[in-house]
Inverse folding.
């Protein structure tokens, strides 16, 4: 207990925040990669890379904190989930390898190498996004466990529903990427990014609606939580959570309105807010499980003295990390000039 | 031997961690080297330090990128392939890895952006600060990962909880295990030497090609200084690490030394082919008795051989025996090259002794070989345990299908082969080109007066 709150609950919140920061930050990196094939010229692609190159590594570190933190704070959840998600995690890691090295390799490759690593950057970004969608579904759909050990099949995560979610997440990342480019780009690329963002917000809303409806069909626990099923709506229950889809709709309209507007950071921030709403909806559906329908944070947690020690470390370190991360973002806040060369 | 999830997971972990360690081993040393170069540039204002910085920072960026992406793989592999280990020991070892992320990874990743892209955006002092933060981050990372691994080698400060999992009883004991101090020093020295050997080879190669400028002469001196001081110290650190291993993991040392029987006056074996079936060495060449003196300080000390352990409790002997020998050979070569360089320096012949430059080129990768073989000796030597004397490797593996692991191992091998070849190619290309220099190339006087080219050169 710390200030009257269970340590396992504090850590569940911290890890949820780390994963959200990963999605909000590396989401735009991956989104820029996903939009790579739509760039008009090699020069425009260089601008796109320059818009994310100084910060991508720090962004990806939130994923390491998510994975490492889950291992350290909830070893039983980590041990149960990772084998169940073996293949999508492997695909994600492989894709992130190509995406990560491509930043430098594109710059050093000659003609053929440059072409190869440009494709690797775009492909790695897209596949990583899709794989994260599959990981998400593999996580939320619930898996077959006996005594905290995975006993299901290697491809349990691959369903029509998971394909829908994976596609939706990739579109969402592309939206983050496009709105980030609105913030960072100028000239032709800025105009193009504004058009991308408007198209993507429509696609994202369709995907979100589809995923939301499909989720209700997925698990009776989720249906009960939202008070909504295919057959009827239980209004008192639904109304408590109804603000979430409502806010999502308003945010989508604002993104549509502001994408071509004069305030270039706003569309990105609105997109992050949209992700936050979806994330909150997910949390509301799954609460209070850390391994859905199987383990609560308290059941999956490491020993209290381990959680306490880590909290003693994280309490001073996380503000410091956020501080220098914010500083680096501030340092590189300027628009990328159209003739930007890599370092 | 059955290719089941266990064996395949072991192969995959060995392959991915072996690939990964190459890059930290290089970038730990390189980050410190860059911090020193930039500090010297700020202090002396001599341009060749800046040129060297701008040259090595490109190689650093390439290596660091490969280290990051292969490191992310490691942070998930504990769960995908070793979930039983993770659930069993997570409460003890997890916090050490979490501290690595919190104190090292974010620091490195954030300031790397400033280091690579901030040259024109921030002042020189702030840029130097960023370089120092990255260098400190690499050392912090080494601290925590060595602490975690050393706990697996010489575990202490824990107890078994009611549900059968391990919990810490005293964190300082968990972090500072008996093998940790000497292994941390040993690894840090190894990283510095790995970098020194690469820097020396690059400078020597450039000097051999006639690029006798301040940049190459300076980096050769810096590398020789590092080799001459740290390589002998590394022998001491390695010895200390071996003494600790003998006390806490005698089976590992017996395998490293190739000792089958427990006896006084153990030999130091230089060459042998360990025959595990018949528990003996074939074609053994060694020096009698001094092995006991080296390890225990007394030729008459009776030291445990492999016969002191049941066959199922012994590590694979031949791998450990040979990995250890290759590492020691690399280390001794570094000592020799370092001392020879220091001697030539004292005689003022360091820049002109071509044969020494030639001798330096080939051992450029010797540090990588030493790091890899050293880790192989340490990790294979811990077998059959994943946590020494606490948990067997065979009991640590995830409940996953062998086919999945075979597939992921195959994919990792192909992907790493592509990434490594490309990365190595780009780094070697940069090295062959060498650092830029402000010194004028000595060409103008080579041409006869009136030559058309000579007239254009001044323009």
């Amino acid at each position: 207990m710390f200030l009257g709150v269970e340590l396992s609950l504090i850590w569940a919140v911290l890890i949820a925040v780390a994963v959200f920061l990963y999605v909000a930050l590396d989401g735009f990196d991956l989104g820029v990669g996903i939009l790579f094939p739509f760039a008009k010229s090699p020069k425009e692609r260089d601008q796109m890379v320059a818009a994310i190159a100084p910060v991508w590594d720090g962004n990806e570190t939130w994923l390491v904190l998510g994975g490492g933190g889950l291992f350290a704070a909830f070893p039983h959840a980590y041990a149960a989930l990772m084998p169940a998600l073996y293949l999508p995690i492997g695909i994600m890691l492989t894709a992130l390898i190509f995406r990560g090295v491509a930043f430098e390799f594109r710059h050093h490759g000659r003609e053929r190498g440059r072409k190869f690593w440009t494709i690797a950057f775009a492909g790695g970004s897209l596949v990583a996004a899709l794989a994260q969608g599959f990981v998400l579904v593999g996580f939320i759909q619930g898996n077959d466990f006996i005594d905290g050990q995975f006993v299901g099949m290697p491809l349990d995560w691959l369903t029509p529903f998971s394909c829908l979610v994976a596609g939706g997440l990739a579109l969402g990342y592309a939206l983050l990427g496009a709105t980030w480019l609105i913030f960072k780009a100028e000239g032709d690329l800025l105009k193009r990014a504004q058009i991308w963002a408007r198209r993507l917000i429509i696609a994202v809303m369709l995907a979100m609606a589809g995923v939301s409806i499909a989720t209700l069909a997925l698990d009776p626990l989720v249906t009960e939580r939202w008070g909504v099923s295919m057959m009827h709506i239980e209004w008192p229950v639904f109304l408590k959570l109804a603000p979430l889809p409502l806010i999502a709709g308003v945010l989508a309209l604002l993104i549509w309105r502001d994408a071509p507007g004069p305030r270039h950071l706003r569309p990105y921030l609105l997109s992050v807010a949209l992700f936050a709403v979806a994330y909150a909806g997910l949390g509301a559906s799954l609460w209070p499980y850390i391994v859905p329908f199987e383990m609560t944070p308290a059941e999956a947690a490491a020993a209290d003295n381990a959680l306490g020690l880590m909290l003693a470390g994280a309490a001073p370190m996380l503000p410091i990390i956020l501080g220098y991360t914010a500083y680096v973002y501030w340092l590189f806040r300027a628009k990328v000039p159209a003739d930007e060369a890599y370092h | 031997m059955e290719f089941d999830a266990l064996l395949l997971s072991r192969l995959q972990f060995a392959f991915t961690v072996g690939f990964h360690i190459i890059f930290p081993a290089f970038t730990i040393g390189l980050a410190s080297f860059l911090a020193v170069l930039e500090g010297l540039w700020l202090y002396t204002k001599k341009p060749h330090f800046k040129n060297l910085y701008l040259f090595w920072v490109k190689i650093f960026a390439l290596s660091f990128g490969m280290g990051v992406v292969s490191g992310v793989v490691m942070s998930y592999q504990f769960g995908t392939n070793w979930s039983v280990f993770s659930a069993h020991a997570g409460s003890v070892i997890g916090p050490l890895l979490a501290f690595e992320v919190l104190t090292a990874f974010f620091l490195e990743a954030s300031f790397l952006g400033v280091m690579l892209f901030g040259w024109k955006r921030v002042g020189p002092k702030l840029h130097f600060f960023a370089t120092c933060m990255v260098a400190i981050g690499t050392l912090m990372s080494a601290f925590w990962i060595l602490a975690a691994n050393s706990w697996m080698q010489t575990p202490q400060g824990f107890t078994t909880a009611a549900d059968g999992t391990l919990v810490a009883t005293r964190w300082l004991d968990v972090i500072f295990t008996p093998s940790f101090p000497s292994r941390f020093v040993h690894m840090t020295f190894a990283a510095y030497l790995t970098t020194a050997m690469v820097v020396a080879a690059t400078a020597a190669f450039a000097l051999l090609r006639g690029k006798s400028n301040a940049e190459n002469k300076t980096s050769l001196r810096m590398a020789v200084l590092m080799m001459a001081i740290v390589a002998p110290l590394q022998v001491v650190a390695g010895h200390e690490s071996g003494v600790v291993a003998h006390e806490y993991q005698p089976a590992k040392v017996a395998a490293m030394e190739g000792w089958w029987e427990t006896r006084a006056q153990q030999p130091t074996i230089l060459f042998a082919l360990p025959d595990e079936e018949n528990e003996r060495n074939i074609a053994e060449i060694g020096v009698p008795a001094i092995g006991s003196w080296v390890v225990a300080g007394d030729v008459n000390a009776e030291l445990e051989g492999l016969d002191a352990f049941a066959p199922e409790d012994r590590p694979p002997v031949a791998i450990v025996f040979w990995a250890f020998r290759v590492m020691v050979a690399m280390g001794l070569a570094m000592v020799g090259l370092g001392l020879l360089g220091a001697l030539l320096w004292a005689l003022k012949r360091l820049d002109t002794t071509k044969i020494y430059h030639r001798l330096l080129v080939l051992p450029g990768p010797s540090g990588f070989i030493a790091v890899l073989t050293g880790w192989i000796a340490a990790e294979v030597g811990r077998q059959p345990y994943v946590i020494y004397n606490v948990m067997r490797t065979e009991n640590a593996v995830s409940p996953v299908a062998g086919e999945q692991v075979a597939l992921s191992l195959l994919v990792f091998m192909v992907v790493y082969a592509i990434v490594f070849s490309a990365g190595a190619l780009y780094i070697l290309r940069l090295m062959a080109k060498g650092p830029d220099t402000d010194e004028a190339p000595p060409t103008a006087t080579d041409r006869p007066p009136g030559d058309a080219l000579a007239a254009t050169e001044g323009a």
Observations:
- Residues 193-399 of chain B form one domain.
- Residues 27 and 64 of chain B are 6 Å apart (CA to CA).
- The mean pLDDT of chain B is 91.
